[in-house]
Amino acid sequence: MSVDAPPDREAAGSRTTSPGPRQRRSLAERFAPYGYISPFFLLFGAFGLFPLAFTLWLSFFEFRLGGGDPQFLGLENYVWLFGSDAFYNALLNTLTIGLLSTVPQLCIALALAHQLNYSMRLRNFFRVSMIIPYATSLVAATLVFGSIFSNSAGGLANVLIGLVGLDPVSWTNGKWTAQFAIAVIVTWHWAGYNALIYLAGMQSIPQDLYEAAAIDGASRWHQFLHVTLPGLRPTILFTIVVSTIGATQLFTEPFLFGNGAGGGALGQYQVIAMYMYEVAFTFGRLGRASAIAMVLLVLVIALVLLNTGLARLKMRDRPIRTTPSGGAR
Questions:
Q1: What are the beta bridge partners of residue 285?
Q2: Which of 122, 149, 158, 160 is 20 to 30 A (C-alpha) from 235?
Q3: Which residues have C-beta within 8 Å of that of residue 244, sequence separation ≥ 6?
Q4: What is the C-alpha to C-alpha distance for residues 296 and 112, in angstroms, rounded to an integer?
Q5: Pick from 250, 263, 232, 235: nearest CA to 300
Q6: How would DSSP label each residue in 214-282?
Q7: Does the domain formed by 87-314 have CATH 1.10.3720.10?
Q8: Quick check: 130 and 213 in contact, CB under 8 A?
Q9: How far apart are CA 291 and CA 82, in angstroms?
Q10: Does the pLDDT value for residue 312 go beyond 80?
Q11: pLDDT in tens, 107-137
């Protein structure tokens, strides 16, 4: 006895499979998503990749500001740069000013965010006030701080240190005094901005972790060490990277602090960005300035990788240990 095939199978076998909706999509529909994101890549290529590639190309040529055809020099610009005492002076000043400003800036920001994370009167007012230094014009703020750290005895900084019996300080003429004053400007400008970033990261940490730590007898300080800091690890790494990049690109603060004096009479606070500006627009050597720019790029990448690696080693999770009486230690 023969068994007939089901009608639906016979019909399925007798007709050809029609293309589905995905197969009927036109070529324009397939490439439409790439068209939506293309403006970003076009702008990035025009204002990001092309200037970078052109600067790299120009660093191998002798090209003067004001005319003339570029002349290929090979690595001579880099040989000149690494043999220049002014470059090493600017490099050292950049590192010291960056260290004097970045470390206190992030520590102050972390302390402010930790305090604002708890309930307190006028908390919203203080949160808003944290962004005021960042919103203030950096040029105006630097000029104000320049008058505060004036070399005269009537400057506010000298008046304050005179109250404790110290002699007036010539802030712009000394190396460490000038760098300290510039670091104060940078810290004042960016501490509140980083505090708000830390505050946002603290508010994303689950409250259950703090409650469990409090039940185990952990004090507020131990909660900060063992709950807040591990929870802020990605945020702290982000601020370290951004602050490191900003420290290597300092220009406005040291330039205006000495009223455009080129980093002081002895270059005591001349940073790499100022040195690059001087080589390009004072001496008109665009090829050498391009070599400085490429070395600065390598320096930024190296410092970011170094700081990120050190931060990862220092910020490992440490479990809360409790004593037999329930107190955390």
A1: 64
A2: 122
A3: 98, 102, 300, 303, 304, 307
A4: 32
A5: 250
A6: HHTT--HHHHIIIIIHHHTHHHHHHHHHHHHHHHHT--HHHHHHTTSSSSSTT-TT--HHHHHHIIIII
A7: yes
A8: no
A9: 10
A10: no
A11: 999 999 988 887 677 778 888 888 899 988 9
Phi, psi at residue 152, to the nearest 5°?
-75, 160
- Partners of 71 in the β-ladder: 62
Neighbouring residues of 326: CB distance < 8 A, sequence distance ≥ 6 = 216, 217
Spell out a b/e string for 232-257, using b for 16 or more CB atoms within 10 Å of the CB, else e: beebbeebbbbbbebbbebebbbbbb
Q: Residue 24 class from Cβ within 10 Å (0-12 exposed, 13-18 middle, 19+ buried)?
A: exposed
Q: What is the chain's length?
A: 329
Say if residue 198's pLDDT is above 80.
yes
| Mean pLDDT value across the chain | 83
Q: What pairs with residue 322 in β-bridges?
A: 328
**Residue 94 above 80 pLDDT?**
yes
Structure tokens at 13: 């076998």
Would residue 118 be called left, alpha or beta, if left means φ above 0 and alpha means ψ between -120 and 50 degrees? beta
